[in-house]
Amino acid sequence: MFKAVMLTALWIIGQTEWVSGGVSHPAAFQDTTTAVVHNKAPIVQEISLEEAHKLFEEKSALFVDARQPFFYERAHITNAISIHFRKADTLHVVKTLDKNFPLVLYCGGPECDQAERLARTLMIKGFRTLYVFTGGMDAWRAAKYPITETEFKHK
């Protein structure tokens, strides 16, 4: 929860610098002042398995798998799309998404930070409502919620 709240707090405070992986990105928050003045700060929030499942059942958010495409192809939450956190800047699919429609971002599980890293990138790109499902595939699978799996075959 702290990380998600911190992302929103940084946006609202109007930081002029974003630090990711020890690298400073001064231009990352150039639009911050505009966002705050117009009360359009993005919402970034961690959600539980129950909250994620409710959004899934209501079809009120798009689920996004932040893991490498290989893992997405093997198994993912049904109807989720794949946006690997390192490729979000270059993927065409990101440009086609409605920035006002809520996204639920997930990765492998609680130890994985790929969904949080994707949230930072999408927030900078102007997405308004981002939920980070920290339980990820591990919790979803354990709860026996809908998963699309592809049988992996060795050649």
Mean pLDDT: 79
Number of strands: 9
Task: Catalogue the unreliable spans.
Answer: 1-39
Give the end-to-end Cα distance, rounded to a whole number of Å. Answer: 43 Å
The second-level CATH architecture of the domain at 48-150 is 3-Layer(aba) Sandwich
Q: Can you say what the CATH homologous superfamily of the domain at 48-150 is?
A: Rhodanese-like domain
- The amount of helix comes to 25-40%
- Give the spatial strand order of the biggest sheet: 3-8-7-4-6
The biggest beta sheet, please? 5 strands, parallel
Number of helices: 7
CA-based shape:
globular
Radius of gyration: 16 Å
Q: Could you state the order of secondary-structure elements as H and E?
A: HEEHEHEHEEHEHEHE
CATH topology of the domain at 48-150: Oxidized Rhodanese, domain 1
Q: Give the amount of beta strand, in percent.
A: 15-25%
Going by helix content, strand content and strand pairing, the class is alpha/beta
Per CATH, the class of the domain at 48-150 reads: Alpha Beta
Walk me through this protein's architecture:
The chain is α/β, with parallel strands linked by helices. The protein has a domain at 48-150: Rhodanese-like domain (Oxidized Rhodanese, domain 1), CATH 3.40.250.10. Helices cover 37% and strands 21% of the residues. It has 7 helices and 9 strands, in the order H-E-E-H-E-H-E-H-E-E-H-E-H-E-H-E. The protein has helices spanning 2-13, 32-37, 49-58, 69-74, 92-96, 114-124, 136-142; strands spanning 18-20, 23-25, 43-47, 62-65, 75-77, 81-82, 103-106, 129-133, 147-149. The strands form 3 sheets. It has a 5-stranded parallel sheet with strand order 3-8-7-4-6. Strands 1-2 form a two-stranded antiparallel ribbon. A hairpin with a 2-residue loop joins strand 1 (18-20) and strand 2 (23-25). The longest helix is centred in the first third of the chain and has 12 residues, at 2-13.
